[in-house]
Amino acid sequence: MQPNKTTTKKRSPSTFQLATAVILAALVAVATLAFVFFIPATSGYFNLGDVIIYAAALLFGPFVGLIAGAGASIADILIAPVYAPATLIIKATEGFLVGYLIKKLNKKIKSLTLCASIAVLIGGSEMVAGYFIYDTLIAGYSFALVAVPFNVVQMLVGLIIAVPVMHAVLRVFPQLKSYL
Fold first, then answer.
1. Among candidate residues 154, 105, 163, 164, the one with its CA nearest the CA of residue 126
2. What are phi and psi of 38, to 5 degrees?
3. For residues 36 and 78, is the Cβ–Cβ distance under 8 A?
4. Crossing angle for the helix pair 15-34 and 72-79, to the nearest 10 degrees
5. Chain centre distance of CA 95
6. Cα–Cα distance between 68 and 60 in angstroms, integer?
7. E strand residue ranges, 11-63
8. How many CA within 13 A on the CB side of residue 86?
9. Residue 167 neighbours by CB distance under 10 Å
10. How far apart are CA 118 and CA 8, in angstroms?
């Protein structure tokens, strides 16, 4: 018996997903640059890019979340180049995790809000830990520790805004539920 082609073939991103991912990556860069609150103690900055990363991942899944997350490194190239390589990896991973987790959790938990919140908290925790590790490597433990509360606040603000945005978009475009 031959294997079923639909179950053995890897699903590649559609043209729609690719276009959406690239547009959202650019939007992440714009959102990151539009509201910048520099943190002198860390040489970093607070921004709203995570809102777009989370919304993208929650609405369109891990591939779009990964590419959208990578868009944050564009802003870092312009504002804080020392963070650009780390941001590329950290934010892309964050977007992927949120998108992956929402898909998995949505199969087991009935509340979409709860699924989204858990996905963002786990993905956002990866971001906090990733920057803590990077900051420790480039500037030391004390320096890295100062940045943690700012990154936690950035994650929580992203959660508070992205989950209602997700619900609003799904009300207007219910066909997007197929990505969950």
1. 154
2. -70, 140
3. no
4. 30
5. 3
6. 10
7. 37-39, 44-46
8. 18
9. 13
10. 30
Amino acid (1-letter code) at residue 43: S
38 SS3 class:
strand
For residue 102, pLDDT over 90 is answered with yes
Largest CA distance in the chain: 65
For 70, residues 6+ apart whose C-beta sits below 8 A from its C-beta are 25, 88, 91, 92, 95
Q: Which residue, 63, 82, 69, 46, is CA-closest to 154?
A: 46
- pTM of the full structure: 0.91
Confidence band of 24 (pLDDT split at 50, 70, 90): very high
Tokens found for residue 16: 């729609």
- The residue with tokens 């500037």 is 139
3-state secondary structure (DSSP) of residue 97: helix
| 175 CB-contact burial (10 Å; exposed 0-12 / middle 13-18 / buried 19+) | exposed
The Cα–Cα gap between 27 and 137 comes to 29
